[in-house]
Write a structure and sequence with these properties.
With 358 residues, this protein is α/β, with parallel strands linked by helices. The protein contains 13 helices and 14 strands.
Length: 358
């Protein structure tokens, strides 16, 4: 019985083209007590592989976190299957704002310790004591309150291309890093401020809101369904959109445009631009922002060194990579000293933090 993906991304892309069907990209999550994640994982793979589902899904004792795509004409079958699982019955599905038939090219369902790498010991606080969920209309009203502190719970490379007006955007690499920073910065306002949080689809805020309530914050709120659901409600109810720029997504689309504002800059020249790319040198693969002019000049590479390596014959590139492992820059997403403009922004950020402490 097949329990793992057997096709390459290239082969899958060809099959999608041949099928000629529109696909839906969507995401969902649910915290639940799953006794045997491996059994659930295998059950999901067998069923979803039959439905031509592709995506990245994590299953753990604490629940499930899924980003995926499937043929639009099989959506009802997929929904019926979800409803047949007790803790997923009637679950909200965040349908992508911008669709792309090739947002995912493999089906990967993995058993993990946690569905989000939060670094927290869940036994030390009540994870079910969460903050108040806000719909888009309520959210728009509350973030205009002078007593509200709006916090982006995503990482630096996500918030740099798009965020809500007046939001605090911690300059962090991981979700866990942001928790201590936020608590320290707001330690004197645990009772007199509204702590309002948001993320991509809501999953990070589920855990963060419970954590901050455990830490003594009295007025904790979270955006229901995250930026994805907010955008849907804004369009459906004709509300004012308070999100600027693009929403970073973790699939091959990279981002969904929420507004026409371009709030980011090319990491190489500083020109207004908000599209991420990966360095063409496979030994680097750094995720960074590169405008069209720099892309042409640098051959889609992040540095002159990478450009020179990328120009070598494939076999020579492969030989250079041998025994080197993966560059740390792959995982640092936009943090590299040779990205001059990004480095300048980090220096400014550090200076502001030092001045604040003084």
């Amino acid at each position: 019985m097949q329990l793992y993906n057997t096709l390459s991304a290239k082969e899958r892309a060809q099959l999608i083209d041949q099928a000629g069907k529109n696909r839906l990209t969507l995401s969902f999550y649910q915290y639940a007590n799953i006794e045997n994640p491996q059994i659930l994982r295998d059950h999901l793979f067998i069923t979803w592989n039959h439905l031509d589902v592709l995506g990245r899904i994590y299953v753990a004792h604490e629940g499930i976190n899924a980003q995926l795509s499937l043929p639009a004409d099989r959506f009802n079958e997929f929904k019926e299957h979800l409803d047949s699982i007790s803790f997923l019955q009637g679950i909200r599905l965040n349908i992508a704002i911008e669709q792309d038939n090739k947002s995912f090219l493999k089906l990967k369902i993995k058993v993990r310790d946690k569905i989000v790498a939060d670094g927290l010991n869940d036994d030390t606080f009540d994870v079910t004591n969460k903050g108040i969920h806000l719909g888009a209309e309520q959210f728009n009203v509350l973030i205009e309150d002078q007593k509200t502190v709006l916090v982006d719970m995503r990482n630096h490379y996500e918030s740099e291309i798009g965020h809500f007006k007046n939001a605090i955007t911690p300059d962090v690499d991981t979700f866990r890093d942001s928790l201590d920073i936020i608590e320290a910065d707001l330690k004197d306002h645990k009772e007199d401020k509204n702590l309002v949080m948001y993320c991509t689809g809501g999953i990070r805020c589920e855990k963060a809101s419970a954590y901050f309530k455990h830490k003594g914050f009295k007025n904790v709120y979270q955006l229901e369904g995250g930026i994805i659901e907010y955008t849907r409600q804004v369009k459906e109810k004709n509300l004012e959109n308070k999100f600027l720029g693009q929403n970073f997504v973790f699939d091959d689309r990279r981002a969904e445009r929420i507004s026409e504002d371009v709030i980011a800059q090319c990491h190489q020249c500083g020109a207004p631009f908000d599209v991420h790319t990966n360095c063409a040198n496979d030994a680097c693969h750094l995720l960074f922002i590169q405008c069209d002019a720099c892309k042409e000049e640098m051959d889609n590479c992040c540095s002159t060194t990478c450009k020179e390596i990328h120009a070598l014959p494939y076999e020579e590139q492969k030989a250079l990579r041998k025994g080197q492992g993966n560059s740390n820059d792959i995982f640092k997403k936009g943090r590299a000293d040779h990205l001059s403009y990004k480095k300048d922004l980090r220096n400014i950020f550090e200076t502001l933090k030092l001045n604040k402490k003084e």
